[in-house]
Amino acid sequence: MKPSRLLPRLLALCLLAAALPAEAWRLPDEAAARLAAGVPPPPDDASPAGLADLQTVLQVQAARTPEQAAAAASHAVRLPLDLVAPLFGTDLRDKLPRAAAFFSEVHKTGDRVVDRVKDTYRRPRPWQRSDDVQPCVYIPRGFSYPSGHSLNAALWAALWSEILPEYAAFFSAGIPSAMWNRVVGGAHYPSDTQAGALLGGQIAVEILKTPGVRDELAAIRAELDAVLAGQPAAVAA
After folding, report:
1. Displacement of CA 14 from its chain's centroid (Å)
2. Which pTM does this prediction carry?
């Protein structure tokens, strides 16, 4: 990055050095409840859509390659800062404390909303419905609908796109990949992942409305730029 471009970022980082408390932007309980209440129910198991859901999981499982299984298992443990690693070719988890703190709260917010929906519909996981389903990822706790991993993929992508708008297309492209990996892994039905991704996008919209968030995202961008300034190989990547 050119010094002329880096200076404003470093200045912003200094001006915004004191991190905002999470309460300054955390999604209010009323908003979380409203979003959860707006999620439609999953298809009934005996309906055409419900039968197609299970059949899709079984067909994908039958064609699953070892490489696909490995990708599904890898995605199952992905964290928010992992989304930027492919861009810069470096693990930034321990180098961006402000981003880590922000996305930790984002993760909690997503869990608050998705857990409400899961507890409402209490949809069994695919392997609980059919012994023919053999998951290749760790066995998640909780109910199946909607997919929390798909929700996080959409939520994190939307917020990273605000921080790094020049890479918005890259982040958006990762959402269907995350959804697919949950089906490949046997952890979710397609309708679970669709509902999760839609809900994640809605949560991101609500978070971006809360006071202080835009300043926090600007500070995270400045933090990222400052870290990358000392890593020429990362900047080149």
Report:
1. 29
2. 0.88
